[in-house]
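Trying the structure run again after the queue cleared.
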Amino acid sequence: SFYVPAFRLKQDIIPGSVISYSLTPTREGRFRLRDAMFSGAYFSNNQTDVIVESPESFSSWLKTTAKKPLQPGLSPGSELYAKRLATGDKGWATVPPAPAPMVNDPGDASIPHDA
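Done. Tokens:
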């Protein structure tokens, strides 16, 4: 479930379905996106920020970021799963998380909104 409290927007995700919606933010800022449904062991990691900025700021960011090489993005679920396997602690039975995505801007684990 795609949920951005500040936008008062929640959209359930249905496997195998294409769901369209549109949104026009009216103010710039950083807004938290959360998973609004319990969906397994790594549920709490299903968060990120939605950044709303001017078209000029976005264009500048895109030009700079597109030049960076691809590298693994932040993936707290994958990291926790790997640590548990290394110690023999498999925890609850679960589907292994997907590997970290390859991205141009991996984020910064020291910033709470990126972790």
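The helical segments are 55-66, 76-87. Worth checking whether this holds up in the mutant runs.
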